[in-house]
Amino acid sequence: MQIKDTSARPATGGLTRDSIAALASQLQGQIVLPDDADYPEARLTHLASVAAPAMIVRATSAADVAATIGFARERDLEMVVRGGGHSIAGYSIIEGGVVLDLSALKTLEFDTETRIAQLGAGLLWGEVAATLHPHGLGLSSGDNATVGVGGLATGGGIGWFVRKHGLTIDRIRSIEVVTADGQVITASASEHPDLFWAIRGGGGNFGVATSFEVELHPAGMVYGGAIFYDASEAATVLPAFARYATAAPDELTAMGLVLAAPPAPFIPPEMRGKPVVGLALVYCGDFDEGNRVVDPLRKLGTPIADIVGPMPYPAIFQFTEDASPLNLSLHARSVMVDTLDDALINALLASGATDMPSAGALVQLRILGGAMRGGDPESAAFAQRGKSALALAATYGYAEADTERHVAWTERLYEAMRPFGTGAYAGFLMRDEEARINEVYPPATLARLRQVKRRYDPTNFFHHNLNIEPAAE
Ligand SMILES: Cc1cc2nc3c(=O)[nH]c(=O)nc-3n(C[C@H](O)[C@H](O)[C@H](O)COP(=O)(O)OP(=O)(O)OC[C@H]3O[C@@H](n4cnc5c(N)ncnc54)[C@H](O)[C@@H]3O)c2cc1C
Description:
By secondary structure, the protein is α+β, with helices and mostly antiparallel strands.
């Protein structure tokens, strides 16, 4: 850290050589300033962005988090929280303010007998899976290895085990939270239960979660992978898949995809890069039974590739590697639906779902239900348990000059899915969709969230998020 006098910059008033030095003396972690060699990398998030924060604080403890919050509040500085940096709304990057970077909070302690684990908020889900897998354990999280624990575990957590083991938030026993006034408290069913309810679904509105105590579940080898069909079979394969996967045992969590065939050895050379249907899945249970359950999905047409079989759970993340890097152009739209009927799939196909602008485009039909539906609706602020599917269209990794046609394709598909939507997932909303907060939370949930907000963050210090205060509507 080179301390530079930035007192002349109005956007960062109060950020002076002396004030930064005073904060540095309180921290165990590091401060990264614009002149530092690692600043260009430290400010990167998943979303391509050129925002230039005035400072990045790499917290290494709850005390560092509290000191940074106090520092920002005293100086009226805008502060964002960054875990894995995967917010598609860009909530973890800011121009001219403070980034509270939690990525050094990597504690992962677990007991193989009790299956209780303590997860630092800065871990990535791929790191969690890789550490726990050799012990035959894991945690229901997302579909991508580089998504952060903090953002996903406060937003919901819809992943490869959602139908068998529920949402990530359902497996949290307690959360260490640093509140807006710098207190370090524990939120659980018995301590600060209002906060425990709100922060599991209400995201970063209430404080900074520094660690999560969670209940693990078996996640060693799974029967998983993907089956691919030519895109010309989409109109028969996808509706049949959706019906079958919705009615399948909870051990099966699957998503139907329209994507460009990966340039992988298992795809016939002439099909690589061409639009295909992919049925990506995890069956967590007996392999023979998994084979029996998955088998009908191999007979929905003429598969061009079938790579479903026993695999280590973390290997499933290979299917989403393309969307993992930081600094990625991205445009995504999604809806949650009560029932995934053929009409939605037909509307997507009629709108050009298989006519993608490039290999960085996909449609996802995530089949939900099972344990996600079974979770107690009063236990957490997540209000979409009853949904049977999530439909998403996304384009990513395109050059700036190609933005228009990628955005146009995504928007066209969104138009097609929009009439069927009955809800939204906070983690999949972009910045320009904040008005959809009413699709994420019904009025009673939103009112209760606001009550909790006023108790723990009355000045709305934590507002770089899907903000629940009325001003954001
Ligand atoms: C490629 C990709 C794949 C995804 N796949 C899935 C998926 O399969 N399932 C799913 O459920 N979601 C998925 N998501 C959405 C993801 O859950 C959210 O984007 C989530 O917010 C990312 O967490 P993060 O820590 O990486 O985010 P960051 O960008 O680091 O943080 C985003 C915001 O979350 C809040 N936040 C983060 N950490 C904390 C914390 N410790 N305490 C309090 N607030 C915090 C803050 O408001 C912060 O600004 C995906 C996103 C991407 C980009």
